[in-house]
Structure formats: structure tokens, C-alpha cells
Amino acid sequence: MDLVEDDLDDLYDNAPCGFVSTLPDGTIAKVNATLLAWLGHARADLVGRRFVDLLAPGSRLLYESHCAPLLRLEGEAKGVALEMRTSNGPVLPVLVTSTVKTGHNGVPAMVRTTVFDARERRAYENKLLLARQAADRERDRLRLLVGGLQRSLLPATLAVPPGMTTASHYHMASADEVGGDFYDLFPLSAGRWGFFLGDVRGKGVAAAAVTAAARYTLRAAAVYDPEPGAVLRNLNTVLYQEYAAAGHRHCTVIFGILERRGSTYRATVASGGHPPALVVRADGSAAYHPTEGGTLIGILAEPRLVTRTISLRAGDTLILYSDGLTEAKTRAGGRYGDEALREFAQDLGPTSAAAVVDALAGLLTSFAEVDDDVAVIALTLNREIDADAPPG
Question: How far apart are CA 361 and CA 374, in angstroms?
């Protein structure tokens, strides 16, 4: 029996963790050799002192405001991270668990505290923190690069045909990955302007390369033959050349030519699988101008393209957008949809390019999820336009 008791005493005194017993008022009554060694004290140095006197100032405040109330109310406080002062200066990070031992009358008689050395854990946490900080810096650097690349694929500002106002908006679904939506509006010959909006399949650098190629191909093709169908066929030829490649990308595009006709404009548009143009009229009505049946650009050697003409009068607003808008997930759980967009635009009517783009940008922030990039451009024919002014 003596051997067992000696072994229990040795186990208590030389356990791999610290033990300290205090009276209900916090006065230390017993402490094991392990904790004494960690703190660099003799037993006589600590017995009779208060436990909180062994704690660093911040830990003392935490113990008195958090641990002590828990011990009074619940009889235990588990896994509390504290710092204990050592005799030679440095603090010792520890994890402390305390339980209240009550006497036969149910009154607290002693508080038993187990102290675990947390130096290795603290070092590990510091390494994790440093790694996290490095990862955050790398992520921020990547996002700067992605944002810069995305901006380089879009016009800094939209051109403004005479008598019109224009506006645009680009919503990135993820700040970590460049998207494939693109748009532009640019002058051709006098009184004629080219415009387009498209969406390349996929994301990332490969999609960005196709986006850049598509944008510049469309601009160049429009100079030589501004007929919208011919422009899209030219782009299809460029993209289809890589059809057999593993990284092949196709896209949807709507391309149009604006022509000044006195106090009005005529927009002739051709579409390759892209959502239709939406027009909000000066009387407040809103309607799509369907271009259904057009095939994706870059899929077939000879694409099927659909062309139609839209007349724009004073106060009318033409809106082009990518399908990330209508496919966004609402807070009710469904997709937003074409009809909801038409009704939203009609509620704005009559409107202006800047107003409708601002409203759509706000709408995007209201969705539960927008998992694809969204591009929007809008063109409004001003209510006051000089029919005799040069076409520009």
C-alpha cells in the first residue's frame, strides 16, 4: 500500500502537466513539482500566495472576469488560454482547466486546477498565423492582377454617339478569377457606330485570351464589312480554327450597327446564341427583341445567325446584358429569369442609360448568389436631339 501511495504522490508531483490546488479565496494550498519547474519557483515561494498573482496582467483580468464567475456559477472552467509569469521574466503560455471540489455540506472547499504547457501550441499557432498572413498577401496580389487583367479587357469608357447617352457596368462573380464577358461601343464611318456584348465560356486566363481576341476581332471586322452577320461570321472563323484543341472556347455575342436617321437611330443587330436586346420605350413600356435560333460562335464551321432591326426614338433605351444576370439565384431559391428582368426594366421606364445601369447594378447586390460574371451596357436616345446636326 505504501508503494502505491508513493507512486500516486510521485505521479502527482512529476506529472506531465502542472497541478495546483487553491482555497476558495484563491490562496494556493498545494502545487506540484512540474509547475514549480516550469515557473522557476520553490514550493515555499508559491504556497500561501494567490493563484492570480502567478498570472500576467492580461491573463489576470481574463481569469477574474471569466474563469472566477464560471467557477462560482458552474463549478468549472475548461481550456482557458492564459499566460503565467516565470521567475526569470518570460511568460509561459498555458491552457488551464479548473474544477471546484465541495465538502460534505455542499460548500466549495477547494479549487483544483490542471495546467498544460502551451508553448508548442502557441508556436504552431504563430506559424499558422504567419502562413495565413502570407496567403492573404498572395491573395490580395492575385486579386490586383485579376482586377487589372479584367479592366484591360473592357473599354475605359463607352463612346457616345451624337444625341445619345451611354453607360456600362461589369460585375465580377469572383475577385479571384477573371471572367469572359466583354463589350464595346465604337465609331465607324460618319453616322455609324458599332457595338457588341458577348460572353466567352469559362473563366481564367484561357477565357481571358479568347475574350481579348474576340473583342479586337469584332472591332477589326466591323471596319472592313460592318454588316452584323458578316462581323460575327468573321469571329466564328477565328474561334472555330481552334475547335479541335483541348482548350477550345466558344462564346455568345450580340453585335450591332447604329445608324443615325435624322432625329432617330436604327440599330441592326445579329446574335449568335446571346440573350436578346431589351428596349425600354419613352412611353414606359419594355420589350425584348428576340434573336432566337442563332448558334454559339465558334461551335460550327458555318454558324446560323439571326439579324433584326430595332428603331430607337427620343427617350428610348436599348439594353444589352449577359446571362449571368437572368441566371442569378434569388433569395427565394429560384433563378431570376427573363420575365422578371423585363418587368424590372419596365418599372424603371421611361429611363436613361445611367439610371438603368445603376438600377441593375443595385439589383445584382440583392441576389442570394451571382455565380457568373455580368456585363451590361445601355444606350439612350436623348429626348432633345437636333435632327439637322451632323451625324458625327
Answer: 9
Residue 3 pLDDT greater than 60, yes or no: no
Place of cell 515555499: 44
3-state secondary structure of 196: strand
Q: Which of 66, 69, 102, 70 is nearest to 82 (CA)?
A: 66
The 3-state DSSP class for residue 381 equals strand
DSSP class of 335: B
Alpha helices in the chain (DSSP H): 2-13, 33-39, 43-46, 57-62, 68-74, 119-152, 205-224, 228-240, 338-348, 353-366
In the chain the first and final C-alpha atoms are separated, in Å, by: 108
CA–CA gap between residue 94 and residue 92 (Å, rounded):
6
Report the Cα 115 to chain-centroid distance in Å.
Answer: 42
pLDDT for 88 equals 85
Distance of CA 78 to the CA centre of its chain: 37
Helix (H) / strand (E) element for 379: namely strand 374-381
Specify the pTM: 0.69
354 contacts 165 by C-beta, under 8 angstroms: yes
**Per-residue pLDDT band at 1 (split at 50, 70, 90):** very low
How many other β-carbons are positioned within 10 Å of the β-carbon of residue 305?
Answer: 23
The one-character DSSP state at 307 is: E
Residue 346 and residue 284 in contact, taking contact as beta carbons nearer than 8 Å: yes
Other beta carbons within 10 Å of 164: 23
Where b means 16+ CB within 10 Å and e means fewer, 284-293 reads: eebebeebee
Closest to 242 measured CA to CA, from 283, 189, 275, 206: 206
Q: Residue 193: how many CB atoms within 10 A of its CB?
A: 27
Instruction: Report the side by side order of strands in the sheet with 91-102.
Output: 28-31, 18-22, 108-117, 91-102, 76-85
Are the C-beta atoms of 265 and 161 separated by less than 8 Å? Answer: yes
CB-CB neighbours of 349 under 10 Å? 19
